[in-house]
Fold FYVE-type domain-containing protein.
Amino acid sequence: MAAEIHSRPQTSRPVLLNKIEGHSDAVNAAVLIPKEDGVITVSEDRTIRVWLKRDSGQYWPSIYHTVSSPCSCMSYHHDSRRIFIGQDNGAVVEFLISEDFNKMNHVKTYPAHQNRVSDMVFSLESEWVVSTGHDKSVSWMCTQSGSMLGRHYFNAWASCLQYDHETQHAFVGDYSGQITLLKLEKQTYSTITTLKGHEGALWWDPVQRLLFSGASDHSVIMWDIGGRKGRTLLLQGHHLEMCVQAPQWLDSDSCQKCEQPFFWNIKQMWDTKTLGLRQHHCRKCGKAVCGKCSSKRSTFPVMGFEFPVRVCDACFDTIKEEDRTPLATFHEGKHNIAHMDMDPSRGLMVTCGSDRIVKIWDMTQVVGCSLATGFSPR
């Protein structure tokens, strides 16, 4: 079903203002140009395009540049008009965009990875470009000399990246479900800690020093990095202050309800002559339970679960009907969203995805809301 385009907001929901079409393959990233009626897109069709809004109200490409390999991600720095493009062949290409956004000149090509670049951040403060790739590594390169400064390898391909410019710490999420915190130096690095999160996307708030990680399981985890309290919150699309802190998952060799052994508990299985069971966790109390003792599913919005999740039978009985009242609102984007960008000052959002369409939304009527998208890991 096609989305309807309105000239101005009608209700308190995202309103589709415009659609940009013309790509011949999936659009992997789109960013709004600050203080301009423009959008920059990169695509699997190997194109980098700068779209400017014309007097007709439609967006047309003022720059159409083709590179040698599909474009997987980008990092755009508006003040310096420098744009870095990650490619499927592992290279990162830097361009300089003219002031009128009608011309783009090649600056450098960085041999960052041996495989597809999955995410990337440019830091003007340190003059580094930090990137992750499907070659299971994170690399940081000097943008002044073009030389490689360092590289760290993981056990799984690195899927997402956030970088704290002030302290030169990098958060790297990999496809095994871990988030690694690295302190980067010019010629070396150190591993600070590893968080057991999940694959998908990362977002770093340098002011509150909070790290958010999301995935295709519809959940978001908030990691309290600055507070050093080990606090985590599970969110599914609504206000932080509405959420109750998620319980820590407990470890046990047997079900903490019926005491039946889990499949790795060889001694108890031998003593009781029973087969081991698979371990699960109740999302409300955190106890390790078997499938029989956690056969129920329930929403629990106050803890962040807007969708049904596994809870033990005892916790299910304590959840009242009013506890299941949704705290979040969901809006249909009507296309598979792989990437989004926000301009809060103008109340604009841009989304793009595998359907080759870029959509520009008016968010001025969506007040006081946290925003999240459902996406598929690239």
Q: What stands out?
A: Residues 266-272 form the longest helix (7 residues). The domain at 15-240+329-367 is CATH 2.130.10.10 (Methylamine Dehydrogenase; Chain H). The helical segments are 266-272, 313-318. Residues 1-11, 228-243, 367-378 have pLDDT under 50 and may be disordered.
